[in-house]
Amino acid sequence: MSWLESNPFPCNSCGLCCKNIGHIVELEAYNNGDGACKFLINNKCSIYETRPLICRIDEMYEKTYHKQFSIEEYYLINLKACKEMQIENNLSEEEQIDLDKYWGLLFGEQNKQ
To answer: Does the reported pTM lie above 0.85?
Structure first.
């Protein structure tokens, strides 16, 4: 079993990435006109099994970013983007991704910056 299979990206299903696709060229056809994905229904992806590669964090890493970043670095970049969107959209602390928790899992507490 690969590291990715045993440690998938820790999405907390807040839906904010799907509500903010207006700036993503690859998802232009999915934009419902207000920057949200037209396939986001009741805060869930209605095409989850057939969603685009760019919406698949783990597969996107394996196909595109594995030579540029370690999986830990790639996850951290994406986790920070999640956290920023969650803060900007006023999600409560309980609803936000816990960066401290995942930092320890990805890098070990001794490397925390």
So the answer is: no
